[in-house]
Amino acid sequence: MTDQTYVQLLDLACGAFLLTGVLVLWRRDLAAIVRLFAAQGAALAAIVIVLGVRQAATELVIVGLALGGLRAGLLPYLIRRALPERGGPDAEGRETRPVVNVASSLVAAAVLALVAYAVAQPLIRLAPSPAAHALPVALTVLLVGFFVLVTRRRALSQVVGFLLIDNAITATAFLTTNGVPLVVELGVSLDVLFAVLVLSVLTNRMRAAFGGTDLDELRELRD
Amino acid sequence: MNLTQTAFGLSLTLCLAAALAALALPRRARPAVAGALTAAAGASAVASGAAAVAGQGWSAWYPDLLPLLGVRLALDPLGGVFLAVTGAVAVCAAIYGIGYTRHGLAGRGVQAAMPLFVAAMLLVPAAAGVGTFLVAWELMAITSLLLVVAEHHRRAAAGEAGQWYAVMTHLGFAVILAGLAALAAHAGGDAFDEIRQAAISPVAASLIFLATGAGFASKAGIVPLHVWLPRAHPEAPSQVSALMSAAMVNMGVYGILRVGLDLLGGGPAWWWLLVLGAGAASAVYGILHAAVSADLKRLLGHSTTENMGLVLIGVGAAGFFAASGSRALAALALVAALLHAINHSAFKTLLFLAAGSVLHATGTRDLDALGGLRERMPYTTALFALGALAASALPPGNGFVSEWLLLQSLVNALPEGGVRHAVTMPLAVGAIALTAGVAIATFVKAFGVGFLAKPRGEGAATAHESPPTMLAGMLLAAAACVGLALAPTLLLPYLAETAGGVIGAPAAVTGEVTLRLGGIASTISPLLIACWLAAALVLVLALLRVFAARRARREARLWDCGAGPMTARMEYTATSFAEPLGRVFDNVLRPESDIDVIPAKESAYIVERVRYRARVADRIERRAYEPVLAAFAAAGRAATRLANGSVHRYLAYGFYTLTGTLILLAVIA
């Protein structure tokens, strides 16, 4: 792999990673959001595999493949199982009234990208490599994920927001270092898997108990 | 390997074994085994402390036990005194606790926390490094807090007392931590030996002394940091009350002595005038509140504040004399302070254990509902009387000897001192005299109203004597009181050596039967006083017998104004006994009373019922603490508006904080 191909492939994967993250803000249909999340998982796997091939590190490629299997396959499958069945009340399957509307959300995402770019500069100066130059992308996705948590009402959007943050953290780890050890990555992935399992169970319970998954309905639960 | 080390290690091991046994054993065996092991640990600590006082010093460093600093332990004579006192109190309390905790307090938590509390109190005077000291201090605070709230299921007051105690003790810990950390930083080392060698600037030393002094004074229950003490000490189980009131408060005095006189090497005179003033204020304020208190254990708690005040008068005087050059007097004042601390531990253990027996037998601590216990609880009554005699500082009680020594050191300062002496010492003497007078009234009230006359309540009427283990614990404490009263001369030379070592002066007290003070003409012989008093008593009784026998005895009913047999309602109660005192000291105490008169129907002149309620609130608490608490509560209520239950709002707080910090970083960088 020549230097140029490497940089182009890496930038392509990072671009896909960022785009899928921002598009989560754009779509209202929960099923579409889950598909976007799956695509982002694939992009993340691509980033890791490109890095692995570049360094000729078999272990990193294996980690990338496993990541792809988990984040583009297993996690979206689990979330999809918690989606309301088709034919139910239409409002349940859609993000009807986000706290901040879609247009403003996209503007906010642009501002967050600027912040991430500014914050990442000192980190990039530490080790100016092509991978480190892609760092603002990961930080942007992290802030966007947090933004999704704050502004989206449905429980499943919240789960996706949480997973966007986790994807971004993983991406940051791989872009700033020469690869994370397999054991560490396995541990993190297992945690995320359990979190999603628990959250999807909770979502189903919420729907059974309250008839909806709007988190603001829970306001009465405080002391 | 000397006796000090062996016995100290043994006592710590026994404490741990007691805690483990309490966790592992079944409920029925638990109090006996844990109590016996704790008592053995206490006895071993007494041996270790005595060996240390006798001159067998010991020090050790275990670098691996605590991260970074390691555990430093050392026992010198000063630490040995406090170690031995703590051990002795633990023996009495643990034996007493076997019978006391069998009914309702035999849970794992209480039984395991008690030996750990004892272990922590043994570690405090043995600590020889800042880190070790702080760990032991905090362990002592946490275990005692667990014990204070042991009965919160039964009484809501215990929970409230626990809150006060937790807040006060942790504020105290925070200032001690700050002070000692600053001390270690200035000295460039954690070990006390390094700190003693270091030169510390006067300003830094003063700040350190003030910070640590405030924390230690709060532990000793000194005004105005005493508010937790009359709440927490009564609410704990009685043997824990004894441990806290007779052993734990001493650690405050130990801290002031260790940091002020030893580590900082004396310091300027104003430090010690401050200590003396706080001690005098506590002595007077504490005993006045004890005098008007109608709750037996609360009365004893206030009396602890009083006695710690007296001890601090001695400590303050010692530091003051040392700073102004009269070292012999300083050593004498310190001996008096140490002896009073020991005496107080002895009689306060006895009194709290006896009060626990009363509570155990009658289910109440309210003096107004007690009375008439003399016939049903003869041993407890006799033991409480002995303790009350000691606490009121009358000869031949043990409190008398130490207060006499204290007065001697203060009175004899006048001829040679300057203006400061001439102003301070008479005031201090006056405070001690006033305290002693009110203390007599207080303990006459506690004993007379609580134990004599007719029972005023259901519980007092059906009281029963305590089980043998409880009596044994009280008897041990009583034996210590009698021994200290009759033969303080056996102990005083060692205390004089200890105090002389701390101050840097020759021993201030000598003598085997008659005490002679170094450089002062006064002497006293407690044993002879006791003999004379006993002889006089025998003589009076014999004369009465002789003269009374001449006339025939005649039985008659007591004069009752012709109103029929006298009932218990006609007796003096604790409240009515203390009422005149409340009037005399109206300016300090400000008792609040309200009278509700409810007239009969259709007549304004025929009264159906009159209700009188009197309450003496702590004015310091009302003026200084309640506004602060109210401000905190208001701030808390205002802050609840931030939390409206919306998950999005909570997440938004995090989001804004994160992005705000990032933007700030980006701008700064």
Number of strands of chain B: 7
Helical fraction of chain A: over 70%
The ordered string of helix (H) and strand (E) elements of chain A is: HHHHHHHH
* Count of spatially separate domains of chain A: 1
Q: pLDDT average of chain B, as an integer?
A: 89
Proportion of beta-strand residues of chain A: under 5%
GO cellular component, one term (chain A): plasma membrane
Subcellular location (chain A): Cell membrane
InterPro entries (chain A): HyfE-like
Keywords (chain A): Cell membrane, Membrane, Transmembrane, Transmembrane helix
Task: Please provide a written account of the structure.
The complex is a heterodimer of chains A (223) and B (669). Chain A contains eight helices and no strands. With 223 residues, chain A is mostly helical. Chain A is globular and about 55 Å long. The longest helix of chain A has 29 residues, at 182-210. Chain A has one domain (3-82, 101-208). In chain A, 77% of the residues lie in helices and 0% in strands. The model of chain A has no long low-confidence stretch (mean pLDDT 86). Chain B is mainly alpha-helical and 669 residues long. Among the domains of chain B are: 289-303 and 333-541 and 570-586, no CATH class; 622-668. Chain B is 70% helix and 5% strand. Chain B has 25 helices and seven strands. In chain B, the strands form three sheets. Chain B has a three-stranded antiparallel β-sheet with strand order 3-4-5. In chain B, strands 1-2 form a two-stranded antiparallel sheet. In chain B, a hairpin with a 5-residue loop joins strand 4 and strand 5. Chain B starts with a helix and ends with a helix. In chain B, 52% of the residues are buried. The model of chain B has no long low-confidence stretch (mean pLDDT 89). Classes of the chains: A mainly alpha (223), B mainly alpha (669). At the A-B interface, helix 4 and helix 6 of A face helix 25 of B. Chain B: Pfam families: Proton_antipo_M (PF00361). Chain B: It is found in: Cell membrane; Membrane.
